[in-house]
């Protein structure tokens, strides 16, 4: 507190009083006080996260409007683990003529995507809906004042190793996949079937692996002869001698789309990203929903 008071050019009693007033106003305890100093409470740690976001936004505003030189292009996208979203991001950056930019692409959990777009940490979020999760996802989007914009629909596919005996089939069933480990993406403490990135999963799998990133997922597919369920879109990362995609027999359909905050206007870079995203999807043989 002493160091902070020096940084802020206020007396320590005045700073302590201001913190107490803030705690009373918010109805929380930010710090626990003891003879050795102070520590953050759980509520205080959460408060600090929001405070950092506010300061980051202030910094962006200052850099965007107070500098005389050309402004940096800004764009932040949160997405489920789809390679076509990365492919489009590369295309967007390659097509950008900006000499300076700050672009962020987050491959993360479904609930985090929704929260990041709601808090304006990201301009765009890429998620899917199905008959199973649509009601829950749309309810959450409405509560967060978010809008879902459909991009394209597709049938579920499985990603398996080319060495897998099933790779020679034109179509597989969940029954066919029973002998192999099932891979799924982690959905955090609020993990729920409704937030799962896999639109179809076995009723019971004796061997199940949860991962947090796409590279690990691909390595396990090859190294453990495992499988996961996703869209049928691949790219050069998948189109190798090691991994292939095969249609999964299912009544389910995936509706891929992007979400935005109804109170926000997209930046030019975000608009460019959406254009490139649609081009990539069409390049892979899917029809854009207008």
UniProtKB/TrEMBL annotation:
For this UniProt record, give its keywords in alphabetical order, as a comma-separated list. Answer: DNA-binding, Transcription, Transcription regulation
| CDD domains linked to this entry | PBP2_LTTR_substrate (cd05466)
Q: Which PROSITE patterns match?
A: HTH_LYSR
- Membrane-crossing segments per the record: none
Q: Does the keyword Transcription regulation apply?
A: yes
- PANTHER family cross-referenced by the UniProt entry: HCA OPERON TRANSCRIPTIONAL ACTIVATOR HCAR, TRANSCRIPTIONAL DUAL REGULATOR HCAR-RELATED
The name under which this protein is listed is LysR family transcriptional regulator
């Amino acid at each position: 507190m002493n160091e902070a008071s020096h940084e802020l050019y206020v007396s320590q009693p005045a700073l302590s009083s201001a913190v107490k007033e803030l705690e009373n106003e918010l109805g929380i305890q930010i710090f626990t006080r003891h003879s050795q100093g102070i520590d953050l409470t759980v509520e205080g740690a959460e408060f600090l996260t929001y405070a950092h976001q506010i300061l980051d936004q202030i910094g962006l505003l200052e850099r965007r409007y107070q500098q005389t030189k050309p402004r940096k292009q800004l764009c932040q996208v949160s997405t489920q683990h789809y390679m076509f979203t990365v492919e489009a991001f590369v295309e967007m950056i390659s097509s950008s003529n900006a000499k300076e930019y700050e672009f962020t692409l987050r491959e993360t959990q479904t609930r985090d995507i929704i929260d990041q777009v709601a808090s304006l940490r990201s301009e765009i979020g890429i998620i899917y809906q199905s008959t199973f999760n649509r009601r829950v996802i749309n309810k959450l989007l409405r509560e967060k004042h978010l809008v879902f914009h459909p991009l394209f629909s597709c049938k579920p596919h499985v990603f398996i190793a080319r060495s897998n005996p099933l790779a020679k089939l034109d179509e597989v069933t969940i029954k066919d996949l029973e002998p192999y480990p099932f891979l799924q993406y982690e959905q955090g403490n609020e993990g729920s079937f409704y937030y799962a990135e896999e639109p179809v999963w076995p009723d019971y799998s004796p061997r199940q692996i949860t991962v947090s990133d796409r590279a690990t997922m691909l390595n396990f597919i090859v190294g453990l002869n495992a499988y996961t369920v996703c869209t049928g879109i691949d790219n050069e990362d998948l189109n190798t001698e090691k991994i292939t995609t095969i249609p999964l027999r299912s009544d389910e359909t995936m509706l891929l789309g992007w979400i935005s905050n109804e109170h926000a206007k997209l930046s030019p870079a975000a608009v460019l990203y959406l254009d490139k995203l649609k081009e990539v999807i069409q390049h892979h043989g899917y029809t854009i929903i207008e």
